[in-house]
Amino acid sequence: MKLSRRSFLRASAAGGGLIFCPCGLSTAHALLAAQAPARRQILVGGQRVRTIDTHAHVFVSEAWPLVKDLPQVDRAMANLGASAMALDAATMDRRFREMDRQGIDVHVISVHPSQFLYFTEPDLGARIVKMQNEKIAELVAAHRDRFVGFGNVSLQQPDLAVEQLDYAVKTLDLRGFIVGANVNGTELANPKLDPFWKKVEELQTVVMIHPQGFDDAGKVLEWA
């Protein structure tokens, strides 16, 4: 069955230069340095099941120097940019140990929401998104048993976002995308984004809508 854009919206609710980070909604991604435990076994009906965490962020530190002087930069990105470190073997080992402790087999990794960067000009936005997506693809390629990658797109430029979708799926083998809940104040059902959603349907790919920046939630609370 082919979904329309609105039906789709209703149904959807590595190497160096990356750090793992929480999104600000949870502290569940803290890295532990304790002795590596055996992987926690998750059972359903007495049967071992494979667990996949679809909400795991990374921060692509190479993007930070390109935007650090722009006034629109999110404070969270500034904090992460100042503390960014390379993902060396020890850092990766701590990440895997924490996943094992929680019983998580696979992380679906995507950029931190402070790195959506919808305020950037087209050329800069294209450069940063390409960098982010290629870094995530490298990390996934190095750890295919533990990671799946979601890409980023320049939603402020829908035609550019269409090209980014195609490249990320067909060349980088990314399995889906993460987007903010609005684009510079424009909601995701705006007709300007129709080319993006049409391409999503064509590629039959997944889109995760990150909850931060959902301004309409505040309006709903005001009405209640």
CATH topology: TIM Barrel
* CATH homologous superfamily identity: Metal-dependent hydrolases
Q: Ends: how far apart?
A: 36 Å
**Radius of gyration computed on alpha carbons:** 18 Å
Q: Could you estimate the helical fraction of the residues in percent? A: 25-40%
Q: CATH class, anyone?
A: Alpha Beta
> Number of DSSP strands?
10
Order of H and E elements: HEEEEHHHEHEHEEEHEH
Give the mean pLDDT. Answer: 84
What does this structure look like?
- The protein is an alpha/beta fold and 224 residues long.
- It contains eight helices and ten strands.
- It has a six-stranded mixed sheet with strand order 1-4-5-6-7-10. Strands 2-3 form a two-stranded antiparallel ribbon.
- It starts with a helix and ends with a helix.
Tags for this model:
224 residues, alpha/beta, TIM Barrel, 6-stranded mixed sheet, two-stranded antiparallel sheet
